[in-house]
Structure formats: structure tokens, C-alpha cells
């Protein structure tokens, strides 16, 4: 029987987060091609990728039998990138173990990020996803995220920037 426990992550979860990242994103290695997969894999396998996120983000995880099988990071506003504006909070590295896809884990983790952002007073939440992540796009659009624009190619693939207005009095 599948029992899912949702909680926040800590640095002690580093090893499991890296393993999950490789499993969740590894299913796209054929779509990405060898060279681009090697770049993505190196990022997923880098301690600093996750440690830096854990320092600034709220990380929500889903466990089954003491194994982390889902994750999502919410970065608060004030951490702009070339993709995300300074005033936006944003979601990164939503991943679900391939064996557990289709159980609503990605949707629940995304909703936890949204709820936390609302409770924290954030006004806009953003994320980016790609042309090959159909299930993720379906989840995000179903929750209410709206595609703001196409991004430059990442890993040789088309990515899209999505936003969700949390403060209904302002515009994206």
C-alpha cells in the first residue's frame, strides 16, 4: 500500500534529493541527447545545486516508506535570475520518482508551494518548464499558471516561463 507523507526537507535529505533529481529528470535523457543530458545530470548530481537551494528555499518533499519520491523548491522573491524577476517567488526542480508518477504528487507539491507563497505574502509565483515536460505543463496550466513567454533554448530545447498571480489586485 502506498502511504505518502508530505513534509519540508532539510540538509540531511541532500543524498535522497540528488538521487531523486537523477531519477526524475533522467527519464528525459533520450529527449535531451547525450551532451545535454550530461550537462543536466552534472547539475542534478552536484551537492551545491541542492545545498544552495536548501539555504534560500522552502523545499517540500513527499515520502513513501522513508524514501523521498517527490520534491519541489519554492524560492522567495528577492533572488532574481536571468529568467525570474526580483519581485517574483518561483518554483524550481519539481520532480517525482517515475515509479510514482500519476499519483498526484507533483500537483500536491506544486500546490504546497503556492499555499506557502500566499501565506508568505508573495504576489506572483513563477516557474519554467519545457516542451518535453507535458505532464508538468498539464499540472501547471490546470492549477492556473499562464504562459508568459517562450524562453531561449535550454539544454537545446524550448522552455516556457509561466506565472500565477497570487495578489489579485496587481498584474503580472
Describe what you observe in this structure.
The chain is α+β, with helices and mostly antiparallel strands and 172 residues long. It has a single domain (5-165), classed as Aminopeptidase (3-Layer(aba) Sandwich), CATH 3.40.630. The protein is 37% helix and 27% strand. It contains 6 helices and 7 strands; from the N terminus they run E-H-H-H-H-E-E-E-H-E-H-E-E. It has helices at residues 14-26, 29-32, 34-44, 47-56, 105-119, 134-143; strands at 5-8, 58-64, 67-75, 89-96, 124-130, 146-150, 159-165. It has a 7-stranded mixed β-sheet with strand order 1-2-3-4-5-7-6, with helices on both faces. The longest helix is centred in the middle third of the chain and has 15 residues, at 105-119. The protein starts with a strand and ends in a 7-residue tail after the last strand. The relative contact order is 0.15. The model has no long low-confidence stretch (mean pLDDT 93).
Short description, anyone?
This protein is α+β, with helices and mostly antiparallel strands.
